[in-house]
Amino acid sequence: MTSTITRVLVANRGEIARRVFRTCRRLGIETVAVHSDADAGLPFVAEADAAVRLPGNTPAETYLRGDLVIEAARRAGADAIHPGYGFLSENAGFARAVAEAGLTWIGPDPDSIERMGSKIESKKLMEAAGVPVLGNLSVDTATEDDLPLLVKASAGGGGRGMRVVRTLADLAGEVEKASAEAASAFGDGTVFVEPYVERGRHVEVQVVGDGAGGVLVLGERDCSLQRRHQKVVEESPAPGLSAEVAGALHEAARKAGEAISYRGAGTVEFLYDAKTERFYFLEMNTRLQVEHPVTELVHGVDLVELQLDVAEGGAEVSRLASLAPQPPQGHAIEVRLYAEDPAADYAPQTGLLHELAIDHDDAFALRGHGIRLDTGFESGDEVGTFYDAMLAKVIAYAPTRAQAARALARTLETARIHGPVTNRDQLVASLRHPAFLDVTGVATSFYDEHPETLAGADADPLLPFAGAVALAEHRRTGAKVQSRIPAGFRNVVAAPQVTRFELGGDEVEVAWLGGREGYRPAEVSTGASTEGVRVLAAGPTEVVLDDAGVVRRYRTRVVAGPGDPGAVAVLVDGPRGGATLRVVPRFVDPSTQVAEGSLLAPMPGSVIAVHAAVGDEVAEGQPILVMEAMKMQHTIAAPYAGTVTELSATAGQQVEAGTVLAVVDAGGDNA
């Protein structure tokens, strides 16, 4: 039965909602957004033709409430629902409820979702279909010879509920942790255990089924660069695969789709062992993937359009192929820009995005080679604690892999990103790393083997001086009296002016001289050489420096605190990257000081477990409590051996970043 879709509600948020809206607008389909209170001001809400509020903030109150989503579709007059990815996208019960409500479900049959939704049952199904699988183990059956092991959540994905275990003694505890995280993320705490392939590669195949047994295969992607078992860098085609291996992967994915008469877009994921050139079925994601843009660029196809075409009915695989006429060509690489601190165990970051400006050729689509940007945020938006920490996906498409990596690295390096700490520098370092460029390091163990990427490249040493000049100009032009007097002017110069910034957790001290002759650097505490540096032009928004005959321009912006005219940060961007320089006040507010040994909340979130009590003797590194933020769990441990003297945190408590949760007193000789 065929039907024409006229108005689509996207049961999701952020960049994937905007991505679906883009295709719908091109096809003449109206769009409806649903949003939580926290998301009310984000771009995807304003871009929809209509929007419906879901009262609340947490996923459980909003985007996971299928009944509210369906009611929103009714109220807005939508005739179809697109689930995006995550949330309810792989919930068979929700898919059935959509159909029962008389709406078109833009996704696979609920039976397919159920059969592939359990990683345990799907492996049995794939084994029967002739697709290679890894064996299943358990706490009781695993032996030393099976190590290392991987504990995985049966439902969901995204690295949640996943743990690598290298000693049998840790297995039971890791199973318990993985189960708790899976239950929190997916509402299902079922986990399983399988062998862990060292230096394995995560290779997946994009399929689109017509629901009648026909399956269109649209090449493969490599998604091996991961942190916390969650993808960071993805590319298509997968590098370094022989034609025989690629063909075998495609055929295995086709068998997987045919085994369940799959309908719509889906991805069959495999673990590939480059040493043996063997691969094993991991799971099938019965939805659109986060990394779908690399396939779209290489194959010249709009996967959302294919989803809509299948959902409207009557789309045979031959017609699907006609919508993807371009043979694969070129190479595409995607990176996920996260609000997180890689150097702090990838702790999620929150706060105001002062600036998010990434040069690109097109948003959510691309014609020809260039840079595509898919993002759910814009400058001035707030990054909260309730959802995933991804800010944007940046995708480069070029004739060769090396060209794509080069273009993407440079685009990220020159992007203007200020506010919460991001993984931008790590991404640039990854794309330029020799192991990545010659494919030898493309493995899920990449970041374990190359910790040097955590630090990223060395920052431009003149950024702090440019920031100090911009701040001085800002204060001079904003002065109520004597604003025409040059900044730093003194009748008798006894000592240079000093500006202090916090950069990457370290304090940077910039000494400079001013007056009628303009600004001159005296010294920068980072050890950067300022000899031969001259200031050619200075203002609050731009500083031009001559560094030994090389002229460089720095874009600057001074940010004031809410309700406070005083400067709190200087945003500086130069030709070799940028930095957010947080102004260190000359005098410290005593109320902000905390006792030595205080354990602070690293980010806003909720306390989900407390493992100690006041008076307990604890060892260095012993877990004190566990927090959850942005759908990930974070253990907060004792900084050294000592006694817990204060413990204000309780399970279920919501806390802000910087809240004192507990205090550990080293005491005596350990102090």
Alpha-beta classification: alpha+beta
CATH architectural designation of the largest domain: 2-Layer Sandwich
Strand composition percent = 25-35%
CATH class of the largest domain: Alpha Beta
How confident is the prediction overall: mean pLDDT? 89
Radius of gyration from the CA trace? Answer: 27 Å
Number of beta-strand segments: 39
**Count of discrete structural domains:** 6
Distance between the amino and carboxyl termini: 75 Å
Task: Classify the oligomer.
Answer: single chain
Q: How large is the count of helical segments?
A: 16
CATH superfamily of the largest domain: ATP-grasp fold, B domain
Contiguous runs where pLDDT drops below 50 for at least 5 residues? none
Shape: globular
CATH topology of the largest domain: D-amino Acid Aminotransferase, Chain A, domain 1
Helix content: 10-25%
Please describe the biggest sheet, giving its number of strands, its sense, and whether it closes into a barrel.
9 strands, mixed
Strand order in the largest sheet: 13-12-9-10-11-14-22-20-19
